[in-house]
Write a structure and sequence with these properties.
single chain; 157 residues; three-stranded antiparallel beta sheet; 4 helices
Length: 157
């Protein structure tokens, strides 16, 4: 029979898990981030090069770098916990994090500017002949009147 590795000391294991941090950097170097043992983002740095990127490109770079750091964190956490056993919910979640592949972020296609609403190029519409808005109540509304109408979405909220 193969010898099983000795179970680690609880306090030592907890300290190692608490100290675990995985860092990843995008291929172009614009995004750098760190996650803890749970895969929670603990640091995010963007270089000035992101100013030349679209929002979708930045989001994709952050997401892909985050997934890379999550994978490393899951692998290292799994290695620390392996002496306790490789079955169970926690190890299944770690395996899922290692295999996770995000959906590709669609790149937005530039849309041509919409033609002016009116042929003469006016942007604002003359609304002086429109009917006046209903007058707001002058005083507070009684509870019976307010609640009798059912659920309301009032601007005052």
């Amino acid at each position: 029979m193969a010898d099983r590795p000795a179970k680690p000391d609880r306090e030592t294991l907890l300290a190692e898990l608490d100290a675990l941090s995985a860092t990843a950097t995008s291929a172009d170097g614009t995004v750098s981030l760190s996650v803890n043992t749970d895969g929670v983002l603990t640091r995010l740095r963007l270089t000035d090069a992101v100013s030349g990127m679209s929002a979708a490109e930045i989001a994709d770079a952050v997401l892909r770098t985050y997934v890379e750091a999550q994978r490393e964190s899951a692998k290292r956490t799994g290695q620390l916990l392996a002496p306790l056993g490789t079955g169970g919910y926690l190890m299944d979640r770690l395996r899922w994090r290692v295999q996770f592949e995000p959906e590709p972020v669609p790149v937005a296609v530039p849309v041509a500017a919409a033609p002016p609403a009116e042929p003469d190029g006016k942007v604002l519409k003359d609304r002086s002949s429109d009917a006046a808005a209903a007058e707001a109540p002058t005083g507070p509304v009684a509870d019976d009147d307010w609640y009798a109408g059912g659920m309301r979405f009032d601007r005052a909220w």
